[in-house]
Amino acid sequence: MSGARFPFGPTYDEMARPELIEPSVRAAALEALPSDELNPVNLFNITWKNRDNQVRKMVFPREITGLDVNIVVLLGNGFPSGSHKVGPAYSTLIEACVDGVLDPEKHTILGPSTGNFGIGVSYVCRLMGYRAVVIMPDNMSKERYDRIRKYGAALDLTPGTESDVILTLERTHQLMKDPSNFALAQFELMPNYRFHRHVTGSAAVEAALRVGNGRVACFVSAPGSAGTLAAGDHIKAVYPEAKTAAVEPYECSTLATGGRGQHRIEGIGDKMCTLIHNVLTTDFIITVHDDECVQALKVMREGAHILERLGMKREAAQSMRDLFGVSGMCNVIAAVRMARYLRLGPDENIVTVATDGFDRYESVIDDLDRRCLETTDHVLERWVRDIFAAQDDSAIHDVRRAEAKERLFAQKEKDWTPFGYSAEYLDGMKSQDFWEDEYAKHAYYSEKIGQMRG
Prior knowledge:
The chain folds into two domains: 57-80 and 191-398, Rossmann fold; 86-185, Rossmann fold.
């Protein structure tokens, strides 16, 4: 890192396999993570691996799911800034640094987001010496705004909620007319795809190795930017028979039904088919009601005694308190329902992702308490039983046929031609070669990052 005007962090390969990091740098990063959050060496903690180079994961308790199948959950709350979204934020910024298009003295970084990506942008920019402005809806959780301000970024708020992210895109493209602004446009820039295919995908495969039959039968993730879904492309390269399922709020089921309503699952369901969503490799779309996710989160946070009644040991039940946010619970609920739909057995594995932990959702639970007449133990127990036992196959949409792909591509064209993307570029995405060529660039950027940091 010597001689750089700003800190250079890990390569794609080092984020996937932190054991490749120079040992003294790795040791310094691990020491800084719990005690020196704003030390730039924390860039080398952008990985799914813990200090023992093992994937941070859990197998979601069968006592809760009622299923004899393995729901393997990658845990994102161990990333610096508290969410795996810091990975694509860093990857997008570092690729621009490699390309030589940024100067920290001249440029302000824009981060269009509904929360976690914006937090990641503000964090990475703080560590790398850039000014940052996060553009996001004005009705997200208070904790998100507080964390962004804590890292020193400014907020540019647009009207609405999670479902109104299109307004943040319009605002971002307006601000991009000023050449001093550079957007880390998570919904449309390919570093997001490359990070998740290379780093999250390899973590998903590794997380399943010592569980059940060691294989991945299905990968489940909600598309916010759709970056995380790219992990499914890596999984399919290893296990061609594996399925990929995208999860949407029932209230805003744009990919499944064209629905565009409001919902409460922060981080997903953005009324569009994002540009970096490889719909060619998406097999199913499943919808989940937003309040089920918030209710399930309340049980995980406050209902350890309820989980004990279901058969969990006390320590295990209490360990659930901090591991999930609303979107993580949404992913788990969807994974349970996909396991039933696919009729998976006791040795088979579904892998999903908990994007963040509970630390940014206290106000969401407070809102649930205000909206509910009562949240007694009886109610919490009924919630957890009803949510995880429910199965509505009409909420699972098979999109493997050509006509379904064409419908999704038509949605993408409708969403992105207003932002200047040509029909030729969008048509190119109908070939898997497009995605393979984009992914292959990770090797070039890994090499250049290593060279430029000295």
